[in-house]
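Protocol step 4 of 6: structure prediction from sequence.
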Amino acid sequence: MSELWAYLTESAGWAVLGFVVGYLIGRAARDAHRVATAITTEDTVTEQHPPTPRRRVPTGQFVLGVVVVLLGVLTVVQGIATNNATRRITECQTAYSNGFADALDARASASTDAQNALDELMKTLSRYLADSPVPPDKVRAAIGDYLAKRVKAETERQQHPYPPPPRDLCK
């Protein structure tokens, strides 16, 4: 949230600074124009023609100042919207990464147990087939152990599915 306030403060500061500088330059230019006009028209003013009231028309500098202020406001609003969207996508990506890592850890652990049981089964079978003194009960127990661990691994995988991909999750 402090990033948002820093951005708002900086944007508002630049907008105000630009407006003030533009106003001061415009005022200085108007004062110089008024003095020049007063000097040249003092000689031509007569008592017979009173000055006519002028209708106030917005100057180009005023219009430019309004445009600058509007652009500043639009920039701040766009920055806020962009910041919110970026934060939402970042949070979604973080949730996906954490979910994926948790599912991967659980699945890898279950697969490791099943792989160790398979290795033990293969060693037992190879000793049995090599006519070494391995009783058939031990072979059956190794096969049963492997099949039980495979069922456990499959259950773990079903209990810990991968999360949906971010292209579906983070819209």
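Step 5 (inspection) to follow. The mean pLDDT is 76.
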